[in-house]
């Protein structure tokens, strides 16, 4: 039983590990060909724009361009780090990210396990479609729906008001904003998030469940000893990826609701870069803020990956 | 169905002004950020440059323009299109040239292929203008990339409130100097351009050179005002003419709010009450106080009073909760459906198509504006630059090409009542529009093809006209405007193009955020002084010194 999960012994792997380069290329060429469009996309839309980060070290002017704008070294970063609003944006970003990590991350896993346990294909497809759907709504629409349901003049509060019960406008309450945005994310994205976990669950050998059941293991034991270990690798992988994105907490979602709860609650790194970089055409400052964010994200990603390795998981790549 | 009218777009521009105002993006006639001087022009230079003014005597308005204070005047109004339109140009202005144009558009962008309106106007002007309208709401994000990539079209329109992030004293170097063609009497070669009043041309001058062609001239342009649902007030037995002070207005807050029934007195009218408390709203930012000191709008005593007034209304529950959640985009819906009784909007909101939309929700719908309120019985309203948008010709064009474009501009600027005006605004009769009760109304095809494109390159004086058959709206608006102009005043640095140094670009946003926090009730009014102190320390005082310098060199424009 254990053999199923362990990698094959080194003696068996060895010949595959070092094939002649040419052979390897011939063997993988169709796979490589399939990757080409994705690589081109990455180069054009992710790598080429990286030249733009150079503006973080300039006093960039749209009239002088990259080539003629004066170089200022780390001046923009000094300006950035001296701005208390930047630090407050960073603090908000980390706080919102942490709340989402704790409250959102487990939801798709639980949902996937629930769905997986439904026997009827029909019901499963229906539920799956219903929970997927909000993913395809734009944030403007999602926030509008929340506003119309939970807002001060929304369905819930009008009902409470008409029945003489006190009202609570959660949409404009800065103190509970973290919980509000997290529930919005759960509503919108949890259904979409289950896809990867469902695939992982489908990969678990059903014989294991049968064998365990025959040995007298109940529902919870099977979940604890078969299901969760079976998808542990994927969970860790998703967690590592999430940590790499920890400084990204929904630019649109924040931008739309920033006015409703105020800067102190909703300013995150991305909106900071937008207001102080793009809107005021202070592109150097915007570039510096996002470059800082990029470097920090990379460090988070590497650290998370390292921890995954220490825990004996593959993480993003095998050591 | 007539859902198109030039005033409507002026209205949108006005709405834009109101809604973007709180974003701090607006700028006076090119109050932009630059590294190479303020771009302002001295009075002597101005006198040499300004084109001659030769008014058009073409048609007589049904409701004539009324002269107000300080040279401002109300728009002439027409109840129907003048009979027997005459041609103001002879022959074909163009020489077959081909030019790319870009203009902002608030609305659906029509298809260019098989567009009979585009074809008809291009044929009439004898040139091929390749129109590229772009989404007006994102226009300010598109422009910097066009400049940075050196991909400016031949003829581009730029709204004054999009100039803020362009460093406009630098930007104009990319455009053709029109002074040699239009300054002084030279403009008389283009009679329709010469009929655009001088104050509009004054806004088109940077660095001592005439660069722009004015779009949407009006004799008294305002950012916005306070509107009410007259039908709702009447039901409560309220006479809107009795509302004269902010206290009267606050009283309405109590009377008109019935939250359980889903009705609140106010939408977000904060920008609109700037007029009552005498602090300017964008694009005007500076005031000269009684002692002669230049103060920013955040330093006026009025803003504190306004914050107190507004926060009290918000806390008392008289402001619609969606407005307090900053959902400005639905403000018109709330007003149409009667969820709010009092709102703030640009003057362009008060048009026939608005009456049509409102009456669709409620047949008794009646939008009216309060006569100007004041704290002391002496109302006053600061005027915006008289032309809100300008178009520019690319500096790469040759002299002959510039002349051809100006001849085309002369055709496009043909006044209301002319043959050309009908072609430019409505296309071909029978195909794009038909005359209904003496007014042009777009056909179904016309409403898909005709968009404000050519008109956004240059426009003549914009009269008030009947839209969607709503004649009463024209009469009401004309009467209100005639009253309003009596209180018109010039704000500091009026009609001057001042480009602020780039390093102060970022001190405004924290104040915009703070003001919002206070008026929505998230922070006490006392927090304002603390924010103001930071603003002063971070560059506000230096910015004042910058404007002191402008005053000593160029005057205040008042």
TrEMBL record, chain B:
InterPro entries: Bact_solute-bd_prot1, TAT_signal
Signal sequence, renumbered to the chain: 1-27
Coiled coil feature spans: none
Keywords: Signal
The keyword Oxidoreductase appears for this protein: no
Family listed: Belongs to the bacterial solute-binding protein 1 family.
Listed name of the protein: Uncharacterized protein
Organism: Paractinoplanes lichenicola
């Amino acid at each position: 039983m254990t053999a199923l999960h362990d990698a094959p012994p080194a003696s068996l792997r060895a010949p595959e590990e070092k094939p002649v380069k040419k052979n390897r290329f011939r063997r993988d060429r169709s796979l490589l060909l399939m990757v080409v469009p994705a690589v081109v996309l990455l180069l054009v839309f992710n790598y080429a724009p990286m030249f733009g980060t150079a503006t973080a070290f300039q006093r960039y002017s749209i009239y002088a361009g990259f080539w003629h704008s004066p170089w200022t070294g780390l001046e923009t970063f000094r300006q950035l780090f001296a701005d208390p609003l930047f630090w407050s944006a960073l603090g908000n970003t980390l706080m919102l990210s942490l709340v989402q990590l704790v409250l959102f991350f487990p939801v798709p896993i639980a949902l996937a396990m629930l769905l997986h346990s439904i026997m009827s294909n029909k019901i499963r497809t229906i539920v799956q479609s219903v929970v997927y759907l909000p993913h395809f709504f734009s944030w403007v629409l999602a926030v509008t729906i929340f506003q119309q349901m939970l807002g001060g003049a929304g369905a819930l509060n009008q009902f409470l008001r008409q029945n003489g019960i006190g009202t609570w406008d959660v949409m404009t309450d800065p103190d509970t904003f973290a919980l509000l945005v997290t529930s919005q994310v759960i509503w919108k994205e949890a259904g979409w998030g289950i896809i990867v976990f469902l695939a992982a669950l489908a990969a678990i050998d059903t014989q294991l469940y049968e064998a365990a059941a025959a040995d007298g293991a109940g529902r919870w034991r099977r979940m604890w000893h078969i299901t969760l270990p079976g998808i542990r690798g994927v969970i860790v992988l998703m967690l590592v990826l999430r940590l790499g994105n920890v400084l990204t907490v929904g630019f649109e979602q924040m931008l739309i609701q920033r006015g409703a709860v105020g800067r102190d609650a909703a300013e995150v790194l991305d909106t900071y870069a937008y207001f102080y970089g793009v809107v005021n055409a202070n592109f150097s400052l915007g570039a510096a803020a996002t470059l800082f964010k990029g470097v920090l994200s990379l460090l988070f990603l590497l650290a998370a990956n390292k921890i995954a390795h220490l825990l004996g998981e593959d993480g993003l790549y095998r050591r | 169905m007539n859902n198109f009218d030039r005033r409507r777009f002026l209205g949108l521009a006005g709405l834009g002004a109101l809604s973007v105002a709180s974003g701090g993006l607006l700028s006076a006639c090119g109050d932009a950020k630059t590294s190479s001087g303020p771009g302002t022009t001295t009075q002597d230079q101005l006198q040499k440059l300004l084109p001659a003014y030769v008014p058009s005597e073409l048609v007589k308005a049904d409701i004539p323009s009324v002269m107000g204070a300080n040279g401002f005047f109300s728009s002439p109004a027409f109840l129907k299109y003048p009979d027997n339109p005459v041609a103001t140009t002879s022959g074909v202005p163009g020489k077959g040239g081909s030019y790319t144009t870009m203009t902002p558009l608030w609305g659906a962008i029509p298809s260019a292929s098989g567009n009979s309106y585009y074809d008809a106007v291009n044929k009439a002007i004898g040139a091929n203008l390749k129109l590229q309208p772009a989404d007006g709401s994102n226009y300010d994000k598109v422009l910097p990339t066009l400049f940075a990539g050196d991909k400016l079209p031949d003829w581009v329109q730029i709204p004054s409130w999009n100039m803020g992030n362009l460093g406009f004293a630098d930007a104009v170097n990319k455009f053709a100097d029109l002074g040699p063609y239009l300054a002084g009497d030279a403009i008389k070669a283009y009679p329709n351009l010469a009929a655009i009043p001088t104050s509009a041309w004054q806004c088109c001058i940077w660095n001592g050179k005439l660069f722009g062609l004015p779009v949407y001239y009006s004799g008294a342009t305002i950012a916005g005002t306070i509107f009410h649902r007259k039908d709702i007030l009447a039901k409560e037995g309220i006479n809107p003419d009795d509302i004269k002070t902010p206290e009267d207005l606050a009283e309405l807050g109590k009377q008109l709010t019935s939250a359980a029934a889903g009705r609140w007195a106010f939408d977000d009218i904060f920008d609109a009450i700037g007029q009552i408390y005498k602090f300017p709203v964008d694009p005007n930012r500076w005031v000269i106080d009684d002692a002669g000191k230049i103060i920013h709008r955040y330093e006026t005593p009025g803003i504190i009073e306004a914050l107190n007034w507004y926060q009290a209304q918000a806390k008392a529950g008289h402001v619609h909760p969606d407005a307090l959640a900053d959902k400005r985009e639905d403000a018109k819906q709330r007003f149409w459906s009667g969820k709010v009784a009092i709102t703030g909007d640009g003057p362009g909101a008060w048009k026939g198509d608005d009456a049509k939309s409102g009456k669709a929700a409620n047949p008794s719908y009646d939008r009216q504006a309060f006569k100007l309120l004041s704290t002391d019985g002496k109302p006053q309203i600061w005027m915006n630059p008289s032309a809100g948008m300008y178009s520019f010709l690319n500096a790469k064009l040759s002299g002959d090409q510039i002349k051809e474009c100006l001849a085309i501009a002369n055709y496009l600027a043909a006044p209301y009542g002319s043959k050309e005006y009908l072609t430019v605004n409505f296309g071909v009769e029978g195909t794009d529009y038909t005359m209904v009760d003496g007014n042009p109304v777009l056909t179904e095809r016309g409403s898909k093809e005709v968009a404000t494109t050519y008109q956004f390159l240059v426009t003549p004086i914009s009269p008030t006209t009947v839209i969607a058959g709503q004649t009463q709206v024209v009469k009401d608006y004309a009467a209100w405007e005639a009253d309003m102009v009596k209180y018109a005043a010039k704000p500091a640095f009026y009609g001057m193009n001042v480009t602020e140094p780039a390093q102060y670009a970022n001190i405004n946003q924290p104040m915009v955020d703070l003001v919002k926090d206070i008026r929505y009730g998230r922070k006490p009014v006392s927090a304002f002084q603390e924010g103001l102190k930071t603003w002063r320390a971070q560059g506000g005082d230096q910015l004042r010194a910058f404007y002191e310098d402008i005053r000593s060199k160029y005057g205040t424009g008042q």
